Amino acid sequence: MRHFLKLSDFSKDELLEMINLAIKIKKETKARKFVPYLEHQTLGMIFEKSSTRTRVSFEVGIYQLGGIGLFLSKNDLQLGRGEPLKDTARVISSMFDMIMIRTYEHSNLEEFASYSKVPVINGLSDSYHPVQLMADYLTMIELGKNNNPIVAYVGDGNNMAHSWLNLAAIMGFELRIATPKGYECDENIVQKAKELAKSSGAKLILINDPKEAIKGADVVTTDTWVSMGQEDEKEKRIKDFKGFMVDSSMMALAKKDAIFLHCLPAYRGYEVSEEVFEAHANEIFLEAENRLHAQKGIMVWLDKQRG
Ligand code: CP
Ligand code: NVA
């Protein structure tokens, strides 16, 4: 049995198997052919933070695969009143076939998984957002940007930046991350990704100059400057991130046919300008839709692993 907590727990071949499943199931879904790969299976979805895309895509996804999802808000669970995570894990993993969790500290996920009898999927932690990156990679494939691309991530050294590091390190492409000083990626995660990059040939460049990162890029991406849980730092962050908005003059430095991705929700006038966002809306909303398809691939793959 495998869990899906972070991309660096998987080989390139394993991630590509999940993506290929996603491509196959997407094709079937588009033809309105709903194959019950996970018939009668149940997915528990624990949310400690808000969500639009993650909740909807997992709930619709498991249903279209022949199963059912149950949304569990932390506040409605005894977990919110102090029942230990490890007890919650032992109880609900005796009833669900798979569990997705969106939480704060990544160690919560690891603890939950260590007590769970069924596969656990990371639906975002403070450190990683791996299911998002699977959708992003699927989108890159569909838009023809997966062949040795240069990807530029401009913004906060957060869960999205960390997951991009892992994706690039495994798939072997060039990733340039530009963060303001003081908002760099976690050094431990960077070092582990650099270790992985040695065998894949990935080039990981971490700098503080957004223009240098974007120059000649095939894919430009960013994320909110204020992640969930950082609301108190909003004012300071907006000041510190000055000069990091992806606007038309920044995009003009990328390749002519560069695409722009954003995991959403997007804050126009901060990490991205309205003009860039709307010019690339087709790419961004394809990326959002691909959450549904990529996660189906992940769930079906995880189910296969238990034999
Ligand atoms: N991108 C993403 O995970 O969106 P939600 O927070 O709406 O789930
Ligand atoms: N970095 C953001 C991603 C939201 C999908 C957050 O953690 O809030």
Q: What share of the residues lie within helices?
A: 40-55%
Any idea what the CATH architecture of the largest domain is?
3-Layer(aba) Sandwich
Strand fraction band? Answer: 5-15%
Q: Which strand order spans the largest sheet, edge to edge or round the barrel?
A: 7-6-5-8-9
CATH superfamily of the largest domain: Aspartate/ornithine carbamoyltransferase
Compute the number of strand runs: 9
Kindly report the oligomeric state of this protein. Answer: single chain
- The total of helices stands at 12
The profile of the biggest β sheet is: 5 strands, parallel
Strand-and-helix sequence, N→C? Answer: HEHEHEHEHEHEHEHEHHEHH
Bound molecules: phosphoric acid mono(formamide)ester, norvaline
Average pLDDT confidence is 98
Features:
307 residues; alpha/beta; Rossmann fold; five-stranded parallel beta sheet; four-stranded parallel beta sheet; 12 helices; 9 strands; binds phosphoric acid mono(formamide)ester; binds norvaline
Question: What would your notes on this structure say?
Answer:
The structure is a single chain. With 307 residues, this protein is an alpha/beta fold. It folds into 2 domains: 7-129 and 291-305, 3-Layer(aba) Sandwich (Rossmann fold); 131-287, Aspartate/ornithine carbamoyltransferase (Rossmann fold, 3-Layer(aba) Sandwich), CATH 3.40.50.1370. Helices cover 44% and strands 14% of the residues. It has 12 helices and 9 strands. It has a 5-stranded parallel beta sheet. A 4-stranded parallel beta sheet has the order 2-1-3-4, sandwiched between helices. Helix 7 links the parallel strand 6 (174-178) and strand 7 (203-207). The longest helix has 25 residues, at 281-305. It is globular, with a radius of gyration of 19 Å. 50% of the residues are buried. Norvaline (NVA) binds next to helix 6.
